[in-house]
What we know:
By secondary structure, the protein is of the alpha+beta class. Helix content is 36%, strand content 11%. The protein is built from six helices and two strands, in the order H-E-E-H-H-H-H-H.
Amino acid sequence: MIGKDLVREFGYRLLCHDAEDPENLAYLGTTRSGYDVEINRLVVDSDLTVYLNTVVWRVSTALKSICVGLSTYRSIAASFSRRHVHVHRGNQMHAMLDEMEI
């Protein structure tokens, strides 16, 4: 996806997020509505995060993609119901992720 040259030069810094590795997760508390916010510790500790998402569907903003792609089930569990995922207008999943954006 990013090319052999970048992998050769920066491969030692590339990683796949493990949402079940507690040593590499940071719990940031809850949103005003009580949603848990837990994310990869490197995002919290970094000045710059480059996030690549290789799925075939897209999330509406990069920050929302990070909230889902670099977090844990604890953070996104409330968004996984038919009521949240398949409704486009007034989608509660999008509202929840808006609260998690930093």
